[in-house]
């Protein structure tokens, strides 16, 4: 499971946590599961296979889970430490996957610390995969970080067009073309420099070039920093659905330089907050409450608030991924709102809505359905609506979406099993969710009709 | 490591082994490694990481290796058993890869035994991937085997054009298109029905569709039955080189119905024998000697000789793959002749030469280089030439190949590491090889010049 480590110094980059930013070690978040459902069975099997000391589900085991799985160590740094010193010491969240474990470095100015990157580069050749927006901003900086005092390494780069609409096989082939023309070999390292699209594509290229080469993530958007760069999901879209072609492939490290957010457009910033909000809803009530009180700071790009939100999001993701790397069950809960959201992205055309915008609308729909099923209080419906509006995120799908469009895309969702669409829905108090195919189809129809004009 | 198992019956399909077909339990084959070379180091690391009880290399450990790793149990069946009974009981070679272990079933009439396939099908949906040559011959039979007394399973199929020239991304996309249009989900199973091209492409599609679905191999060529269907290498070609895009992805099982060889063209049959000969050269002297005496039976399609050659080849492959799944070192030795051979396939255009034909020419070149380096006796050069001629395989590359063509394709070979081309070469007595970058480049140039007009 995830843990926070602070190498060589007791301080880290959260010098002034926003109010309510302190983290209790007795958080009460838990995964609520319907024992007896097929999903619960698969999760219990998963847990059994991981050893009984790893996690318990609800009831008598809930206390142990809180203390062992969800306990997150945090340290509030000594305010006497200067900001210059602060930026040198990254927070580290570890993704624990046995011999595929890796660190997530989080902090300001990390791209100015060549050692962080260089220690994870294998071989003499690096291919940086980035896009036309990010290349002018950070490519030179990354090349310097890879090569400073390191003359043996040569760096090539490939600059892809920017946007979800280019997350396809044709664009992926440009990465292979460049890698082969540059005569990169199995000991080379691919570096993803950009947002989620770049990370997913570069990761898939790394997974499949010569049957697998080393891979480093340098995410430059909130979306990528809190979600897509962590956990090893890689892939591309098919015209009929999102992320239908891909691999599970873990990076050597994830390097989150929070300074890269300085150049992020507001719309992209907000898109990332959709995933931050998601973690609160599905498993971390205290984090959600913190967001409710501090969303204005996040929207104002307060560095400390951003750093805290990124770190806590990564901790949540790392914990889930460590317990269920290949999405046997638990990991699917990270997809709250994504089935509806993917339908929106596919339906309106890739790149029209940002991923987080579509997920926000999708979460509203999942929450609506959860409420129709009688699984959550109305107050939670209002709180979700409110926080998404604070984050300037959509709270409904675009008007062009029809019930039929939703249904046709959702039919090829990766969570369909033997013809049955399973969904992540909220159930119980804030911070609890279920992943289940056991819900009333009429209620789903009602939700779709409520959000679509036809 | 590999072992032979014979479930529920003491008999199996080798009713009358060809003369010299009996297998001694004290075979003297071994992998010869140059201790002190970088290759030797990586192999030693590999072996250390697998536990000291698995394998030793040369010298004082050679005896233990012979007895523990290479001992292959075989059973000569009771001749009183009728042929009808014989065909019911497959030989099973196990590929031991922890929780990814799987059986290779080998025998006559196995496609008439639905249980063998059905026990490995997960979920309700199956996609059979085959080609225009094989579909008219065996697709109906496979569909029956999958669905007989099994009404819950639905089977879709996609029929690809036949030939190495179609092992590309465009053709692969047809598999994804069909899978998505058929609304296959993560619990579905992909079945590869055909030769090596179909197996590699279907396997890669299975590895990457929805980030991985179940996969079964039904190889219908000698090449696929003795080599490409076993071990989990999947992938497609790039216009600049063979198999440059792919994954390691293990099947649920491999089902070798030797009856499918009845429809195999002579040229394809011979192509597969190139890999059979390879096993003898790199690690199984006794098997090579058996081939020298029995190649005429193999060429005459003697069922027993074929079954024996397939089984012993699979055992050799399974042993190597079990010790080095991801090709850290040892597994690379299975590529004897392949670096030269891939250059031929790429140079003359995919599909012009069959893979085994190119490998045969490549082995002759590797043997020539080994001899120039003084690593093997001239008698071995002659024996290789002789057995390939018996198998009606080429003993030189096509005249259109130039030194420059070889060099440009070999520069992007997967065995290049940090710019250095490593090769599999024979060294020492028959059955010994090295995987090394430590050879005289001038000797390589001489070999290329000896086999090319320009």
From TrEMBL, chains A, B:
One of its GO terms (cellular component) is chloroplast. The keyword Cell membrane does not apply. Residues 272-416 form the 3-dehydroquinate synthase C-terminal domain. Residues 1-22 are annotated as: Disordered. Belongs to the sugar phosphate cyclases superfamily. Dehydroquinate synthase family. Pfam families: DHQ_synthase (PF01761), DHQS_C (PF24621). This is 3-dehydroquinate synthase, chloroplastic. It catalyses: 7-phospho-2-dehydro-3-deoxy-D-arabino-heptonate = 3-dehydroquinate + phosphate. Catalyzes the second step in the shikimate pathway. The keyword Cell inner membrane does not apply. It is found in: Plastid, Chloroplast. Its EC number is 4.2.3.4. Keywords: Amino-acid biosynthesis, Aromatic amino acid biosynthesis, Lyase, Metal-binding, NAD. Its cofactor is a divalent metal cation; NAD(+). It comes from the Eukaryota. Residues 158-270 form the 3-dehydroquinate synthase N-terminal domain. GO terms for biological process: amino acid biosynthetic process; aromatic amino acid family biosynthetic process; chorismate biosynthetic process. PANTHER family: 3-DEHYDROQUINATE SYNTHASE, 3-DEHYDROQUINATE SYNTHASE, CHLOROPLASTIC. One of its GO terms (molecular function) is 3-dehydroquinate synthase activity. Pathway: Metabolic intermediate biosynthesis; chorismate biosynthesis; chorismate from D-erythrose 4-phosphate and phosphoenolpyruvate: step 2/7.
């Amino acid at each position: 499971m995830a843990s926070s480590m602070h190498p060589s110094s007791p301080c880290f980059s959260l010098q002034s946590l926003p109010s309510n930013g302190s983290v209790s070690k007795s958080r009460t978040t838990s995964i609520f599961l319907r024992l007896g459902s097929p999903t619960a069975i698969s999760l219990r099997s998963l847990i059994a296979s991981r050893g009984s000391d790893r996690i318990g589900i609800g009831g008598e085991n809930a206390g142990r889970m809180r203390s062992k799985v969800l306990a997150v160590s945090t340290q509030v740094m000594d305010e006497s430490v200067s900001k210059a010193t602060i930026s040198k010491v990254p927070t580290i969240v570890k993704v624990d996957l046995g011999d595929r474990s890796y660190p997530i470095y989080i902090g300001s100015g990390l791209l100015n610390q060549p050692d962080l990157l260089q220690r994870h580069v294998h071989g003499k050749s690096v291919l940086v995969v980035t896009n036309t927006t990010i290349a002018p901003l950070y490519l030179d900086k990354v090349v310097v970080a890879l090569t400073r005092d390191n003359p043996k390494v040569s760096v090539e780069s490939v600059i892809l067009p920017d946007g979800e609409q280019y997350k396809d096989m044709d664009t992926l082939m440009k990465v292979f073309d460049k890698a082969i023309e540059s005569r990169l070999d199995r000991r080379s390292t691919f570096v993803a420099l950009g947002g989620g699209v770049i990370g997913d594509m570069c990761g898939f290229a790394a997974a499949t070039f010569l049957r697998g080469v080393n891979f480093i993530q340098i995410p430059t958007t909130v979306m990528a920093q809190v979600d897509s760069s962590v956990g090893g999901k890689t892939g591309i879209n098919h015209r009929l659905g999102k992320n239908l072609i891909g691999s599970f492939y873990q990076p050597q490290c994830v390097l989150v330089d929070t300074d890269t957010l300085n150049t992020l457009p507001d719309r992209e910033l907000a898109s990332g907050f959709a995933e931050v909000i998601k973690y609160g809803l599905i498993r971390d009530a205290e984090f959600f409450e913190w967001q409710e009180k501090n969303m204005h700071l996040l929207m104002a790009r307060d560095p400390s608030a951003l750093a805290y939100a990124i770190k806590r999001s990564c901790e949540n993701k790392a914990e889930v991924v460590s317990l269920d790397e290949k999405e046997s069950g638990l990991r699917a809960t990270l997809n709250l709102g994504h089935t509806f959201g993917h339908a929106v992205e596919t339906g309106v055309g890739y790149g029209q809505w940002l991923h987080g915008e579509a997920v926000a609308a999708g979460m509203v729909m999942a929450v609506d359905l959860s409420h129709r099923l009688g699984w959550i209080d109305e107050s939670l419906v209002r709180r979700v609506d409110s926080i998404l509006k604070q984050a300037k995120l959509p709270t409904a799908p675009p008007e062009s979406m029809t019930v039929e469009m939703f249904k046709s895309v959702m039919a090829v969702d990766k969570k369909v099993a033997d013809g049955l669409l399973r969904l992540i829905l909220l159930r119980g108090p804030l911070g609890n969710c279920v992943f289940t195919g056991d819900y009333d189809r009429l209620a789903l129809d009602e939700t779709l009709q409520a959000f679509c004009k036809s």
